[in-house]
Amino acid sequence: MPLLTTPFAELDLIRQPDQANDPLQAFDAADEYLLEQLHAQALPAGSRVLVLNDSFGALAASLARHLQVTSSGDSYLAQLALAKNLARNGLPADSVSFVPACQTWNGPFDRVVVRVPKTLALLEDQLIRLQGHLAPQAQVIAGAMIKHLPRAAGDLLEKYVGPVQASLARKKARLLTATVDARPAFTSPYPSRYRLESPALELLNHANVFCREGLDIGTRAFLPHLPDNLGNARVADLGCGNGVLAIASALKNPDAQYTLVDESYMAVQSARENWQRALGDRPADFLAADGLAGIEKQSLDVVLCNPPFHQQQVVGDVLAWRMFQQAREALVVGGALYIVGNRHLGYHSKLARLFRGVEQVAATPKFVVLKARK
Questions:
Q1: Which of 44, 68, 161, 356 has the largest count of CB atoms under 10 Å?
Q2: Are 1 and 12 in contact (CB under 8 A)?
Q3: Domain ranges, residue 258
Q4: Same domain, 153 and 276
């Protein structure tokens, strides 16, 4: 893999999750452009920089030896990548402080460096949260590959920060620089809420939750076919999102024990708050984690999963396949993984390579619900 070489550092970087012979690199031209722009500004040593949505730590690790860096984002995998890449390049673990997306930063910051996220609601939430955390002469510099940079990103910077200047394109990347200007105080529209009829729930959703404005059609197809009569089974909702699968299952299975896992901090926070609203003080575990990687082997009876088909802008079944492998490791012999997926993804044949038996529980014209028994 090529090194990330910029005026700040030369770094050997890896992506997360680990994949043998991964053809993708842990940085792109937008990272390089952002770092070159920041270097050209010649910030005094000790200047405070907030880095947002740094997928694998390329930005924060590059700046760590030169500035006071706080990194923040909604991805546990991004936090894990940052920690591994700091160690990989001989940088102290405490040279960058990481703040999960739902927590409060400790400003003020002289510069904010942003990788524009796929979900613009996350960007809007972050820009609103910047209120009171920007130094008087601060700038917010956002970057992305042009194909992933919608016009609305500049509109949000203009609305919440100040006047925006767009850069020339370089290696198919572009920067948007917003200079802090007086803006009225804004009230965040997040978290948002929607209601379900069956089960009767109001679900709260923080800004980066998948299908924040309404139940996604895959989950809608899955809900009527969740297993019941689980007794005191140990159940994991893998990739839990706002927690709706676990909550609906828990309402049908009052003695089952639940663990809700997602790599999105905002998903886990949403799931925790929704669980408490629906089930009060019934105990459950909520984990921001790399799937079931840290779960004890053969410690679960049931895994529920509506697997994702992309990581940031990269589409594919790598994460789903990894989730299936993790589920197999975590399940007891005789335990079962229940999933919903698009018909065309061919999950039945993939699961058959890992599990003793795979059966179709239900189907719609677009989705299948499958049960795979270990």
A1: 161
A2: yes
A3: 192-373
A4: no
